[in-house]
Every structure is written in C-alpha cells, then in structure tokens.
Design a protein that fits this description.
It contains nine helices and eight strands. The strands form two sheets. A five-stranded parallel sheet has the order 2-3-1-4-8. It has a three-stranded antiparallel sheet with strand order 6-5-7. It is globular and about 45 Å long. The C terminus is likely disordered. The chain binds BIS(adenosine)-5'-pentaphosphate. The site of BIS(adenosine)-5'-pentaphosphate (AP5) has 37 residues, from helix 1, helix 2, helix 3, helix 6 and strand 6.
Length: 233
Amino acid sequence: MIIILLGPPGAGKGTQAQRLEREHGLKQLSTGDMLRAAAKSGTDVGLRAKEVMDRGELVSDDIVVQIIAEALTREECVNGYILDGFPRTVAQAGALDAMLEQRGVKLDAVVEIVVPEDVLVERISGRFACAKCGATYHDTFHRPKTDGVCDVCGAHEFVRRDDDRPDAVRQRLKVYKAQTEPLLPYYRERGILIRIDGDRPMDAVAAEIDRALGIENLEPPECDGDDGTGTAG
Ligand code: AP5
C-alpha cells in the first residue's frame, strides 16, 4: 500500500506515519526527517537545506525528488510506504507520478489531516522528539510514559526543532497554504483524497485513518519476540 499523508505543520502527519509503520509495517518516508539527518551529518546539501528549513521555506524540488527517488529503491519499502511531507508542490506531485509509473505501482490514497490553525500552533510549540529514534512527543498531549525516557527505544535525550520558533512556524503555515494546498484538488479529482478530522485525540485520529484505509483489522508485521497475538489499531 502506498499512501501520502498531507496536512499543515503540526497536523500529526509524523505521529500517524510512525504509528502506521509500527502497527502495519508500512515504511515511513519523511522528507523532513531525511533533510534533518542530512543537515546533522554536515553534508553540503544538508547544510544548505537547513538554512532554508530554518526560515520555514521549502527546499528545492530537485533535492527532495532525488531523496525520495533514492528511498523508493530500498528493500524496506517492499511492503508499502507512507510519504510523510512529500509531495509538497505540484511539481513534486508530477515527479512522484512519474516515479510510481516507472516502478509499475500506483498510489492507493492521499490522507489529508485537517486541524484548525490555533491548535497547530499549540501542538508545534509543545513538540519534542527522541534524539535517538525520532519518536515524537508533546509537553501536554503526549508525554513519554516515564518522564525523560523514550517509550520506543529507551533513550534519555530529547530535542526540539530549530524551525519550531514562532516566526518560522508562521512562515511554514503560509507556505503550506500557497504551495501545498493546491495538491488537494489535484488528488480530489483523481478520487483518492480522504479527509480526516485531526482535531481529536491521537487514538481517534488513528482509528479513523485505519478505517478509511480499510486496514483496521490488519495484523501487525511479525518481528523478533512477537508471539503473533498482538492486534492492530
Ligand atoms: P517536516 O518535517 O515535514 O515538517 P512539517 O510538514 O512542517 O510537519 P511537522 O513535522 O511540523 O508536523 P506533523 O504534521 O508531522 O506533526 P507531528 O506528528 O509532529 O518539514 C520540515 C521542513 O523540511 C519544511 O518546512 C521544508 O523546509 C523541508 N521539507 C520537508 N519536506 C519537503 C518537501 N517535500 N519539499 C520541500 N521542502 C521540504 O505532531 C505535532 C505535535 O502534535 C507533536 O508534539 C505530537 O505529539 C502532537 N500531536 C499529534 N497528533 C495529535 C493529536 N491528535 N492530538 C494532540 N496532539 C497531537
């Protein structure tokens, strides 16, 4: 299954993509995470991308298309994937269509997560993530079960993003409206756009996404130590 998660900054794309990977074995492909990793590793492209990201602007189409083209060749994508933060412009959507056609696969659904702007700002201002595995938390809405310890990997270090400053957030919201919202009619016309009310508790959003995708009864993927009795959703 190939899914796009669309929505403004703070809508919950990363949160739901991480969960879909954990519960359903669909690989999360987050262009934001990949660009932050490139910046951290200090590559030329990464450092230039970081400057753009910190201002709340979009990195060039060429760079992100190349990043995704490389990611789609990975073995871990064979069971399907979730595109989180890509495409973000009409040009990127065209490039994705061409890549999928070349690989002989098709897009199953585009999930738009809808959240009012005041809620987005509140979510972004309280967000932090595990420095080791990237699992996302919130000061109020989603704290780790044990304070200071990541639920997923047990690490003790957390980070906040440089582009979560109020001025960069305002710019990211503007850019979303101007450059990414035009993708909604693009996918609506193809009959694959699903609208989800994201202004509800995470579990309720998760359940609606799974129902809309028809995967609410799908078993989680097998992994080491799993006795196979777990349930999804
Ligand atoms: P990216 O990393 O993709 O950021 P974004 O789209 O701005 O989205 P966010 O990560 O801020 O929000 P999210 O929707 O994932 O929300 P989350 O789940 O974290 O991109 C960053 C930058 O990289 C871009 O600005 C651009 O410069 C560049 N870039 C990336 N892709 C690009 C592309 N394709 N082209 C060009 N440039 C690109 O949730 C937010 C918070 O809310 C968390 O704390 C979470 O715990 C909490 N939360 C989530 N759901 C709920 C809920 N239901 N109730 C309460 N709290 C919730």
